[in-house]
Design goal:
Elements lengths: L2 H5 L2 E7 L6 H11 L8 H6 L6 H11 L6 H17 L2 E8 L1 H5 L5 H19 L2 E9 L4 H10 L9 E5 L11 H9 L3 E6 L5 H11 L3 E4 L7 H9 L4 E3 L1 H6 L11 H6 L4 E3 L4 H4 L3 H12 L3 H14 L4 H17 L7
Parallel strand pairs: 1-2, 2-3, 3-4, 4-5, 5-6, 6-7, 7-8
The structure holds adenine (ADE) and zinc ion (ZN).
Length: 340
Amino acid sequence: MSTFINELPKVELHLHIEGTLEPEMVFALARRNGITLDYADEGALKAAYDFKDLQSFLDVYYQGMQVLLTEQDFFDMTWAYLERAHAERVRHTEIFFDPQAHTDRGVPLAAVIGGIHRALEQARQQWGLSSRLIMSFLRHLSEESAFETLHHAEPFRHQLSGIGLDSSEKGNPPSKFVRVYAAAREQGFRLVAHAGEEGPPQYIHDALDLLKVERIDHGVAAVHDRHLMERLARERIPLTVCPLSNLKLRVVEHMGEHPMLKLLHAGLCVTVNSDDPAYFGGYMNANYQALQQGLGATDGELLQMALNSVEACWLSPEEKAVLTREVRAYGEAAGIKLKH
Ligand SMILES: Nc1ncnc2[nH]cnc12
Ligand SMILES: [Zn+2]
């Protein structure tokens, strides 16, 4: 692993906390909670991580998270992720969770948000690792279910920064959630949505125009629509791209055909993220490394992506200025000359 990547100060903007459940922890929590899994052991579970598309992954992902029952379970999962992130020089992280995947199993929202939030707060105090929490609606469920979830989250409003939209993209367009997003906007939530992962470029247009999101999660399908690319570049709409996820879910067949550099050189604010690192073969460093080794990205290009993440994050302007200076200074010390 390159020292440049290891030591680069990083910001993560697209991370599903339930996607950080490593097989060892799935089994440890299953034992703790007296749950019998469909898989005999960790090896059998890992063998199921051979995905052919998004849906085949989601089927395993929703099964894995059934071991999460208590506030302590959510704390332990989140803390394990934060320890890894801290070790990889992640300075700030913006985390998704899927409330409906837990409340539909009878787990109280207070246990979910309480456990995640306690770990985030401990990381802030212990390491100065800052964070934001994003509540993500499952788009394969109904508008009514999303509205109920928004309503149930009211007591936790101060712990949540934004809302997102994830799960099965095809057949569940942004238009299904226009009213929910309008209501969340009224309540002051910041807005993001997964779009253009497996779905068409039109879903990216719709997420921007109908849902009024400020960031697009994935968005790699934009490469197929020249006008959309021009718009994303002109409006500096950030894309939270997840290279290893795209490879594992066969959005691209080889890392060599990943559109990341095309998008970067067209002037888009592309960022590097890990999505569901326990399932896709790596955390932040591994994603930067995949771009370096599989696509030939230079240290200068990787540095620009890291700076883009600072630009796209939800820290205050003052905090962003501090982080930007740190990342730029890191690049300069490595001999990289930035254009501006
Ligand atoms: N990559 C992904 N796309 C859509 N929904 C998800 N939920 C967790 N990971 C996801
Ligand atoms: Zn995602």
